[in-house]
Design brief:
Strand order of the largest sheet of chain A: 6-7-10-1-11-12-13-14
Shape of chain A: elongated
Strand order of the largest sheet of chain C: 2-3
Number of strands of chain A: 16
Structural class of chain C: alpha+beta
Number of helices of chain A: 15
Structural class of chain A: alpha+beta
Chains: A alpha+beta, B alpha/beta, C alpha+beta
Number of helices of chain C: 3
Largest sheet of chain C: 2 strands, antiparallel
Order of helices and strands of chain C: HHEHEE
Radius of gyration of chain C: 23 Å
Largest sheet of chain A: 8 strands, mixed
Number of strands of chain C: 3
CATH topology of the domain at 5-43 in chain C: Histone, subunit A
Oligomer: heterotrimer
Chain lengths: ~475, ~500, ~100
Amino acid sequence: MEWEVVIGLETHTQLQTKTKIFSGASTEFGSEPNTQACVVSLALPGVLPVLNREAVKCAIKFGLAVNAEIAARSVFARKNYFYPDLPKGYQISQYELPVVGKGSMKIQVGTGDKAYEKVINITRAHLEEDAGKSVHGAQEGMSGIDLNRAGTPLLEIVTEPDMRSAAEAVAYAKKLHDLVQWIGICDGNMQEGSFRCDVNVSVRPKGSDKLGTRREIKNLNSFKFMQQAIEYETQWQIETLEDGGTIQQATVLFNPDSGETRAMRSKEEANDYRYFPDPDLLPLAISENDINTVKTEMPELPEAMKARFEAQYGLAHYDANALTSSRATADYFVATVDTDCDAKLAANWVMGSVSAKLNADDKEISESPISPSALASLIKRIQDGTISNNAAKQVFEAMWAGEGDADSIIESKGLKQVSDTGAIEAIVDEVLAANAAMVEEFKAGKEKAFNALVGQAMKASKGKANPAQVNEILKKKLGA
Amino acid sequence: MINKSLKQLGAMLQAKEISSVELTQEYLNRIDRLNPEINAFITLDKDKTLAQAKNADAMLAAGKASAMTGLPIAQKDIFVAKGWRTTCGSKMLETFIGPYDADIIERFDSVGAVNLGKTNMDEFAMGSSNETSYFGKVQNPWDRSRVPGGSSGGSAAAVAARLCAAATGTDTGGSIRQPASLCGLSGLKPTYGLASRFGMIAFASSLDQSGPMAKSCEDMALMMNVITGFDKRDSTSLNREKEDYTRDLNKPLAGLKVGLPKEYFAEGLGADVATVVQEAIAEYKKLGAEIVDISLPNTMLSIPVYYVLAPAEASSNLSRFDGVRYGHRAKEYGDLMDMYCKSRAEGFGAEVKRRILIGTYVLSAGYYDAYYLKAQQIRRLIAQDFENAFKKCDIIMGPTAPSTAFKAGEKADDPVSMYLQDIYTIAVNLAGLPGMSIPAGFAQSADGKKLPVGLQIIGNYFDEARMLNAGHAYQQVTDWHIQMPEGIE
Amino acid sequence: MSLNSADIKRIAHLARIEVSDAEADATLTKLTGILGLIEQMQAVDTTGIVPMSHSQDVTQRLRDDVVTETNQRELFQSIAPAVEDGLYLVPKVIE
């Protein structure tokens, strides 16, 4: 039988606020245990939550970015369960009325000929608080609880079960990861847990429109693991079914060492979260006006920017796509072309040499030793014919190595190309005189000889002659 | 002196006829003498109390005093106070030392009032007799064999036995008004949202409200000026302009329309209580009030609605008591689950556990719509009853409780009959309205004891000043509120 | 809607309260009485009535994103049942 995998994602993105969602405690990562656990984080008796304005703003930004409905009125609810990292014995979340409703996101899957686009539907996104952390090994048989993270604002983004392969799931997750950073609501740091995915996986016979029983892979914090986990889980489910077994709904963890998934022991018992509206909080009202205010602070979104790059700069779809793959890349490109240098050249340089160098040095584009304006000044020297493309590559290398700006490097390395007609004519004359045989061949109809003569002239000029001019003058002299 | 009002004592302090230290010491001495039996206080800290009194004297000397400066106030042990043991009447918090101050504690501190001690209460404010306290029963000073009411029973007994000048209470379904009625004092639950809930250990968040318990309405007005006010730490706190609750105390009552809900005088109301309440209403007629008959048709539903909403919220509010960060942890346990289950089984008393179980049940999968949602809907019907009633009258009067103080142990084993104690008070919390109880006279017990009866006055939203005006006018022509129980000299 | 002892045990487990069989039986009687009281609600037609959670028609106030809390770990942990190296200790958490 042929099987089809059905995947939906729930992503917890930590919002980039200074303080927690319901208290004025800092959300800074990596502090000493429990030093950022205030009275509210600790759920001391008598304390109450007050909602952070910035967290709401982040939710609105996300809603705008995925063209979603933003609820005029949403409600916070209590999700009741006992866990030592959950100090109140309930998590404040949103249940029936989330702040962000239905939206969608376009993703690109695969590369080359097999690449395709797909729209992933967002079911909802809601605000909630993060839990603390359990630290093991503090004492034999004991766990230590650190509540610094308890109360950090999260936006949980839930998709429809729209994905049909690990590749699609990973493409969505990467795209979402780019987007939340693009709009500045999440730092995207997956090692620190700022962006964590729960993946719901089920399989069904191809062609069936009934969903199979799903298992949820919890807390994936790398795209590589996500790919591996989904592939393993899919295979496991198919094999189980083919062996005549059934799938039990379960929460599973992925073990990167073994590459396997296994059911969590603590979640075996059926959960009964007893959701009800939190009486300590009032309904969250968001007006048109609030949304409009956030709109004015929104950066241009990748889709819009992509379309603009194609229309305004005449870039190819593929190039526009690549340049808007991350906010930092786009910002770098925009800053480069803002200095009036040629956009197509700039696009080639950013996606070519700059990207290759960054990869080789394992650097982010924000850490590039060549600033956008420095790159622009190099590109302008190509445009105005001061240097050849080949020379430009040398200049770029030197700039990357910190040897100075484009002009000083061109000067010190003597890379300026010769555009003086008289000088080039002299060189061409010399070459023609020294290569009479080739001239004969050309005249006899061998086109190739022309290129050889150009090569000789360039060589004679030590590469500095403007190739276009060499071409032109040679043609004239040969009467071609 | 012990029977003097806050206002009179304040005047003596201002005139330097007595110092706050002397006044405070006087009450501490009375507490030493009478509290071992009455058991109105759970925690005393004389050093802290006297230090505050000294501070108040300095404020008085420096001319920085306000109306409450130097006055000893007892605080219900539901309010977290920094450095004070705060138990909420529970073994769960037997050793819990408050690491911060509740809003109400800060407010009394900031005006220089003296915290006399933490008063006894039903465990986590769940009860109407003060019998569920882990720290023992409280005696009703009018008849020591009877209960003081609850849950603010310790505060009520303390005021009645003149162990403090006034006290604070909290009221979720009648916990200020019912003990005030049973102990012969004045108690007021403000409009929901006027007093901050920050630092008040939550029972049922959507109903809880703190308020004054004092000898007179005039004293309550002074306390209301301290207790109420916007607090940004409580999302349900209402951002309104500060009021002076003493402003209307002396307004004439002529033309005041008093509504009498027929449901409050129907079956279930004790005949002795009915007689006293009717006499009080006759007194209001003499004061110029106009009596109108009204109906609050959903009154009987307030009990089932309350016993869904309050336990549901409580079951969740009390989940934080898990033995991890503070509070009771069982001495012996196996794994994590066992630690939770044992710590909570040991730390909570029977009534609290019962309510947690009811609340857990009504919220559990499949029951939410039938119970919690339904209760929230009927809650609106109950609020609409009042809305309609206030189209016909200015304030509503009736009994506070269906009976006078009952014998300790009488209802302890019958939760349902205990719950009916709150039949006239609960609807007020559900609607979020202000409600007040003032002494209206006495009934006689079979053995000849005087048992106080309370008159309940319910106002429209934010109408506390008018209610206090009505109460004060009555207290100008009656002396029920200044009568004292025997045996507390 | 009638409860039995097994229901009591299940609810008590959800609420993390240990109950013995004897306690479950005693609790059952009392809870049944209380639930009987609650059952009166079912006679009311509430079709179309908006649930009420606050007496005033108010919405959530928002707080500025400014750090107001300082480290008070020492004070807060002075009332904790078990701590080590700044962590609250509990029996091993199994995932």
